[in-house]
Amino acid sequence: MVARSYNACLVLVGRFSNTPIFLPFHKDDTAMDKALLICKRVLSWTAIFTNIISDRYPKFTSALWTNFNQLFGTKVSFSTAYHPQTDGLGERMIQTLEDMVRKSCAYGLEFKDCDLFTHYWCTLLQSQELAYKTSIHASTNQTPCNNH
């Protein structure tokens, strides 16, 4: 899929390690598309989630997601609408990611490098994820990579 066509980002955050995973996707992706994306990018290198706190996004409340989580033994808790305290860590990570993307793409959702090659916001996600994971955080005096 062409990088320019992505129009959303799925943000996953490890509750204890504070380690983020940023996954570009399309708003019209099906629940199956998102399940395959998570299997391909997340389950291949990390442990299976034991607990997920999610908003009530319809694709994450579907029968497919219920079966997906039962298969892996994952407990799903849904946050209450307009109650960001339930999932403050996720909300804060989304705000941090938005700030990083804005600073990198100050003049729009695409930018040119020193060789005048055009990049799109979603091509930055993995490098911004790495930058976040390897930066020392004031609350722990460690990087999220060291908190596993």
Automatic annotation (TrEMBL):
A GO molecular-function annotation: RNA binding
Transmembrane segments: none
One cellular-component annotation, GO: nucleus
Residues of the Integrase catalytic domain: 1-148
GO terms of biological process kind: DNA integration
Keywords: RNA-binding
Domain of life where this protein originates: Eukaryota
Protein name in UniProt: Integrase catalytic domain-containing protein
Organism: Austropuccinia psidii MF-1
